[in-house]
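Write out the 3D structure for:
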Amino acid sequence: MGATLLAQIIIGKFASYLLIDGVTLSIRRVECDIERETKHSVSLGSLGPIGSQKSFWPPRRRRHSLHSNYMLNRGYAYTTIISSKYHGQTLLFHLASRYPHSTPQAWQQKLNNGEVTLNGVTGTGSESVTSGQTLVWNRPPWIEKDSPQCFEVLFEDPHLLAVNKPSGLSTLPGGGFMENTLLRLVQKQTPNANPVHRLGRATTGIVLFAKTPQAASNLFVNWNTPKIRKIYRALAQNIAQRDAYEILTPIGLVPHPLIGSVWAANLSGKPSKSWAKVISRTTSTTTFEVSLNSGRPHQIRIHLASIGHPLVGDPLYGLTGQPLENLPGLPGDGGYFLHAQYLKFHHPVTGEQINLEAALPSGFPESVVTPTGFALEGQRDAKRVYEKTKTGRARDARQELHNAEGTPAPPR
């Protein structure tokens, strides 16, 4: 996502689609229990949160959970502009070849249902598309797949909110999820919280939200600079021959048999930079600690795969950082182990040093847990808990660490 678009997101009326990565000023683990409603019937519409939002300080254990097994959303209008290379194709051929997640017969049915328009005119499928036309698929409401309906608050003050995202919960709308997203859940509790970046649906860990324009603009400017340190933990295939890697593989769009294109290693893509340090090795895997110096989509998954270490269980990327040759998965498919564990930065408003950590989820293999380097430093920093005094100034307090468990593409 470019700087211009992000600026519009921060400033404009669509501020609710702005995001950030993860954080923990105090390592306050918050249990996230699924609380069942007493009623047996649950509305498929928008569900309200259980409980109410409390004051910011002092930090305490908080539960944020919703009961929503399957949710009927409001539908979505997928919009694109016809480029010159598709000029002259019939509308049906264009839809079926560009978006092969649906068969030609299925696309014709959507056309017959009046779901597709070209420049506002309902399409039949036989007309030719022209460069510059606006193509819209008005997908009717659909029942979204079940996903986690709880999140853990790690830190909150008047300007920032840091949460620990579980695996299986999309950060932003997309990939078939419009309502079952972290953004929707967070904004039911804190309507003014907006993210500055996203984590993949299966990726766990810290997601940082800005609650004020001042905080958002400052974080955005510094996000991919040395002023903000983002550290991830990843379990990868194969045994690393070196102890550290600087990875500069460019990332760009490449063909995908189901959704048209996907981000992957691409020599003509955008410059990208990651640092990967070996934490531990087994007979067939390597645990890496990865820091990012850029913010491309799926960067860690692509970069580690490009040096011969795809994430264990990754259904999409193979040894070269390209989609797997045989039936590659979709970007949101899970099965891999990637966790946004640490974040260090200066508070965008107060200037205080913020050191955040999200504990590894219970599903991470034991070989991933051995701490070295930045991990040990982060654990020491995590023992510092900032508590608000009545005068508004922060003071240090010792506390024992809590070790507890744990624009959208057309969907299939």
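The helical segments are 3-11, 91-98, 104-112, 182-189, 213-222, 299-306, 374-382.
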